[in-house]
Amino acid sequence: MSLPFGTQLPHLITSIPGPQSQAWIDRLALRECPAITARRARRAQSLGTANDDPIVWQEAKGANVRDVDGNVFIDLTAGFGVAAVGHRNDKVVEAMKRQSDILLHAMGDAFADPKRIELMEKLAEISGLDRAILGCSGSDAVEAAIKTARMATDRDKILAFDNSYHGLAFGPLSASDYKSEMFRGPFKGQLGSHVEHATFNGEYPKDLTEFAAILIEPIQGRGGVRPADKAWLRELIQTAHRDECVVIFDEIYTGCGRTGRWFAFQHPDLADAQPDLVCIGKAMAGGFPISACLGTAKVMDAWGASKGESIHTQTFLGNPTGSAMALAALCEIERLQPELEAKSRWLQSEFNRRGYTVRGEGFLWGIQLADTLTLSRKLMKLGYIILPAGPNCEVLALTAPYTITREQLVGFLDALDELQ
Ligand SMILES: Cc1ncc(COP(=O)(O)O)c(C=O)c1O
């Protein structure tokens, strides 16, 4: 008897990409800005290499994705970390349906709704951070944090770190450094000059009194799953606080259970060095675009009360559907936590047993291998969706849904072994 969709092993019925995917990609090519989706068939034609056009997703559940050709894949990315509680998680979908029967949209800063308030209460409970600014994307959360630091300190400068990725809107792009030439290069003239970059896990200015904030990912995600050394990070936070500089953790990747605890900042080694602002997004609502900048009352209240017109808001702020889904996703993360811990330990023993060098924590792993770009394309053709990460593609980033089964992980590791 076959397993339910969501827990299945890959099942491919066409070559990859299949004919339907290719037909959709041809239509996409006519309509989408060419910079968005990598369409490699055209490049392949000129280079004489394999056709690596992407597949087109039709349906997803748990850790499985079905493409428009009917091929079943295992998604080891959880859709950029979003589907942490599994694609189309039952509880998240139920919450969305229930909410859509009563209220799809309220009015941001003008008129709230109960779900948005319950969500912020839940976020305060799990993070210990009493205030929040909601947003629609990771970039929104980082922008809210940068503005909050400005309001709290009357200073402009931000200290960020090399190889960091904070999003591509202008605020976060100014602070990002990952593949800087590519992402920032064309926009240099439009980016602020208020950001300085120091070395991640290395030297930074010993006097931070001129900085509004330090902005850091506790584990660099897109930059290659590079964890900050805890002792280094502790000292950095303490130096920042000594100089009355706000500490912003970008936990858009690491938050919502990804490291095995609610947030990476709750690691015991950081007990006496805590951030003032924490950005979350991605996994927060299991598939709805919603994010938050969480903060201490002390720092967040520096904004002062609204004077009638909010100076920081957006049309979809605190969307009721997203808030309802986030509440459900957070409950699911709580429920899955014990299982995740055991699965993470087992996964680490499997990495060891098979001789892989990895870095990360919980359910966020970078598998260090050569030429992971080619490897990820080969894995795709075997039914495993996984992305390379790092400026030189030095790791395969394993950010699977927490619901992935051990059998699915074994399938992936066996496929990887075979490609070595
Ligand atoms: C650490 C981190 N910060 C910010 C972002 C940007 O989030 P978004 O793409 O939702 O704007 C990302 C996205 O990958 C991220 O990994």
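The mean pLDDT is 96.
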